[in-house]
Write a structure and sequence with these properties.
Blueprint lengths: L24 E2 L5 H9 L3 E5 L5 H14 L3 E5 L5 H10 L3 E3 L2 E3 L1
Parallel strand pairs: 1-3, 2-3
Antiparallel strand pairs: 4-5
Length: 102
């Protein structure tokens, strides 16, 4: 390891990653270099702000567990407050390159 990996975007969707892929499931915190490896392999990363309402986190968990085999869920502090409010209001589940898609 020993090398710091940095990204231009607050929510990276591509870039350098650690070569050991994460196990699917939920994490207390999984850094971008781990979930980027998962994305490269066709998995889905559910990112949510650490202060996100637990009911929304439960909704994300339900979706992930009911229809996906290769996913991770992790809090990610680089989501802005505005994104969190919109995510809570619209039940949005996909954030890419700092833009929110419904």
């Amino acid at each position: 390891m020993g090398v710091d990996l940095t990204y231009e975007a607050d929510i990276p969707t591509t870039g350098p990653y650690r070569h050991l892929p994460p196990e699917p499931g939920e994490y207390n915190y999984l850094p971008p270099q781990r979930w980027l490896n998962l994305l490269r392999r066709g998995g889905v990363a559910f990112l949510y702000h650490p202060c996100t309402d637990e009911l929304l986190v439960d909704d994300l968990r339900t979706v992930a567990q009911s229809c996906l085999n290769y996913y991770v869920m992790t809090p990610y502090p680089n989501l802005t407050e505005a994104m969190v409010r919109l995510l809570n209001k619209k039940k949005c589940s996909k954030v890419k390159n700092g833009n929110i898609f419904y």
